[in-house]
Design a protein that fits this description.
By secondary structure, this protein is α/β, with parallel strands linked by helices. It has one domain: TIM Barrel (Alpha-Beta Barrel). About 40% of the residues lie in helices and about 15% in strands. The protein has an eight-stranded parallel beta sheet. Strand 1, helix 1 and strand 2 form a beta-alpha-beta unit. The longest helix is centred in the middle third of the chain and has 18 residues. It is globular, with a radius of gyration of 17 Å. The termini are close together.
Length: about 260
């Protein structure tokens, strides 16, 4: 079985053929899919989608791009309420993103801390987005650390040193289709960490793997990610798939299908 732990299937890019995409992922043996929200509206849509399919789950969160806008403080309480929905398995996607010049560093950091505290209150894992902000990310995780902190570094883009620090803090690394890109650091990271520390994702509709790079990504392509992990670690594909699925079930407290 294959698992896509981060796929925006509820996004408008899939509105015209969502059912067909779901048929394809089922055909390709994708047995678990997690759809993360990035704000209040998309979190609600994620929950609605998850409610329609046994194998789809939702996350609720505030993406750092959303946190760079003026944030109504009431949203954190509303997200906390949404997170209590039965199909919600994590708080995310949350984090820091300093890539674009108009980001508001303080607003992002404040929102990130707020969402980490929501996760702590509810004893839920967190799904973290980090881009060009590893130093601040790790600093905040240290300051907000607690014994039950756990989660995943979504679409991991750091090097091996950062990877091992994230693992030490209780996080797994989610590998996307960028593992197939020529300049990716991920093959080296994968060689230097345990299979037990890895998850797989597509981040669809973004970041399609080779040979679909530049086109819309979709969850059925997560098998390409799993295959690449198996090749890098020199293990059979079924062994990689089984291990990654088990990691997913344990982190998000899911029953195996």
């Amino acid at each position: 079985m294959f698992v896509d732990t981060h796929c925006h299937l509820s996004f408008p890019e899939f509105d015209h053929d969502r059912e067909t995409v779901i048929e394809r992922l089922i055909k390709e043996k994708v047995t678990v899919l997690i759809d993360p929200g990035i704000n209040l509206t998309t979190s609600i849509k994620s929950i609605e989608l998850a409610g329609n399919y046994d194998f789809i789950y939702a996350n609720v969160g505030l993406h750092p791009h959303e946190a760079s806008l003026p944030v109504d403080e009431s949203i954190f309480g509303e997200l906390e309420t949404l997170a209590k929905s039965p199909k919600v398995v994590a708080i995310g996607e949350i984090g820091l993103d300093y890539h674009y010049p108009d980001y508001n560093r303080q607003a992002q950091q404040d929102a990130f801390r707020q969402m980490l505290r929501v996760a702590r209150t509810l004893d839920m894992p967190v799904v973290i987005h980090c881009r060009d902000a590893w130093e601040d990310m790790l600093h905040i995780l240290t300051e907000e650390s607690h014994s039950a902190m756990r989660g995943v570094m979504h679409c991991f883009s750091g090097d091996t040193v950062i990877a091992k620090e994230c693992i030490r803090k209780g996080f797994k690394l989610s590998i996307p289709g960028t593992v197939t890109y020529k300049k990716s650091l991920l093959p080296e990271v994968i060689r230097n960490v345990s299979l037990a520390d890895l998850l797989t994702e597509t981040d669809a509709p973004y970041l399609a793997p080779v040979p679909y790079r530049g086109k819309r990504n979709e969850p059925s392509y997560v098998q390409i990610v799993t295959t690449n992990i198996a090749l890098i670690k020199q293990i059979p594909i079924p062994e990689a798939a089984k291990g990654i699925a088990q990691n997913t079930f344990e982190l998000f407290r899911l029953q195996a299908p």
